[in-house]
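Q: 2,4-dienoyl-CoA reductase, please. Structure only.
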Amino acid sequence: MSVSDLFKPLTFLHGPVMRNRFMMAPLTSQQSDFDGTASKYDQFWMEQLAQSGYGLIQTSASTVEAGAIAFERQLGIHSDKHLPGLTKMATAIREGGALSAVQLHHAGHRAVPSLGGIPAPASSKTLKDIKAISTEEVERIRDSFIEAAKRAQLAGFDGVSVHGAFGWILSEFLSPNLNDRKDKYGGSVENRARFTIEVIEGIRKACGNNFQIGWRLSIERYGLRLEELREITAKIFDKELIDYLDLALWDSAQLVREGAFQGKTMLSVFTELPRKGVRLGAAGKIMSAQRAGELLDEGCDFVLIARAGILQRDFPLQVKANPMYDSPKLPVTADFLREGGLSERFIETMRGWQTFVKPGS
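A: Structure for 2,4-dienoyl-CoA reductase:
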């Protein structure tokens, strides 16, 4: 395939067609108001992205409950008071020609009490003096994901992306290291995946057949087992429970270092699965037009742009104009980011990313 293939439309099992193969990854910018309301900085960021040529734009991780918070100034979708700001974001994205999705998030055991978070561990051994949440609490959180999806639909978004990565609550339940439960949400692989599947199935039932559902999955750390995640993903593909899988890799080219798939790329472990009508994309150091094009050759249906989109808001337009386009080299100065339109809040968040912002700038 050539870079030009990145500009071909992509259909999904549900909802509208994506105009090209570029998806803006969900980026935590920590620029919302303290109550989770979308700020003027969130709105400006979305307005910039909406004019930048993406096929689908995801919001940052948005809390499905007030106690689910993981970051200061995290976007919220757990209350109707968030609807006006979310509606404005969805409208800006639609007017720019892209599809839209809210990333639904619950921090699980990593919720931060100093920010009002209520840690919700799958296991009693994970956090000192904090018991595992009960079966009823799991079901309440499941229902909060579903209610948040309904709110996203009401705000005018085309879909949601369910955050099942990085040790947050759904990822935590998938991990045999973090989940030693004896109820229907623990034990076997099937039981540990039950929470995720009930969330996805519940959203489909509540939001209908014109609403898109994505699922973000990470493979590393937190005791996650590649073989198990592949098995779970195969079942989700076979049942066509989602519209797209977003593989959150640190590096889209990384290799499996041990186990049955040693030596293969992480990506190939999933692209080789029969996926019926489900679409698959990957994130991870996609910084050039050529790398984005290569990922289609490697079996992706679309690519997720993260750092490259922070450096150059209109990455897809840059690629369209120049098939040899490459992102500016990291680190960059804070002034470079300011000139590109990043808020001071967003820049401060990026200072926490290793080697992104030049020290002292």
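A: Brief note, in case it's useful. The longest helix spans residues 135-155.
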